[in-house]
Design brief:
Length: 231
């Protein structure tokens, strides 16, 4: 089957999926998603089967197919739920950002993806499955970078959009570096390295916020020197 036909088949399957309307149905869907997360984390996307997921959830295979007609539809729904949680966490941090200094913000950002992936171990297999791209996985890095940029702009409102995107990309790479070293479980000093990455991020943010504050003050001073138009 061509990729185009496969995509069309998945779209048809999503359209056929039943949406739960009652609390009991929503609880069943939540249990199926939890079981899918455990199965994908343990076996990976390709090796996981719908039969094993249904058994893990204590549900019939018919019940699983009723809500999720294909494994792709199920994985995509799970990934969307994960992304909603992660983006919600970053949006909450955006609300708190104005009250945090650079060190406090770095302390929240540097280990954020470590904590998230630890809580949701199926996230990485779903996003990084070779040769397969779930709809929800498309643009994940860009979506997260945009949320990080929004956090930075909340702390430095005068920052230009282009600069915020560049700064967010640097912060994102430091967060990914923390994930990478955290994954080296045999390395005895990984906690110390993560602490160093957090300090690096704090210094970077401090320099960034100081520059943004100076730019804001310079712009205000320039505006105040403009002669008032005669009426």
């Amino acid at each position: 089957m061509s990729s185009q036909n496969a995509s069309r088949a998945d779209d048809d399957a999503r359209a056929d999926a039943k949406t739960p309307r009652r609390e009991r149905g929503r609880a069943r869907v939540a249990a199926l998603l939890d079981a899918a997360g455990a199965e994908f984390a343990e076996k990976g996307f390709d090796a996981a089967t719908m039969t094993a997921i249904a058994a893990r959830a204590g549900a019939s295979i018919g019940s699983l197919y009723q809500f999720f007609p294909t494994k792709d539809v199920l994985a995509d729904a799970l990934l969307e739920a994960y992304l909603a949680t992660l983006i919600g966490d970053l949006q909450q941090l955006r609300e708190e950002a104005p009250t945090l200094d650079a060190a406090g913000l770095a302390h929240r950002l540097a280990p954020a993806l470590i904590a998230f992936r630890t809580a949701h171990p199926a996230f990485a297999p779903l996003v990084e499955t070779p040769g397969r791209s779930l709809p929800a996985a498309v643009g994940v890095r860009q979506r997260l970078r945009g949320e990080i940029a929004a956090v930075l702009c909340a702390k430095a409102p005068g920052m230009k959009t282009a600069e915020a995107q560049v700064r967010a990309a640097v912060v994102q790479q430091l967060m990914k570096a923390a994930i990478a070293i955290h994954g080296e479980t045999s390395f005895a000093h990984r906690a110390a390295v993560i602490d160093e990455l957090e300090r690096m991020m704090a210094g970077y943010l401090e320099e960034m916020f100081r520059g943004a504050d100076q730019d804001s003050k310079a712009a205000a001073a320039k505006l105040s020197r403009k002669p008032l138009r005669s009426r």
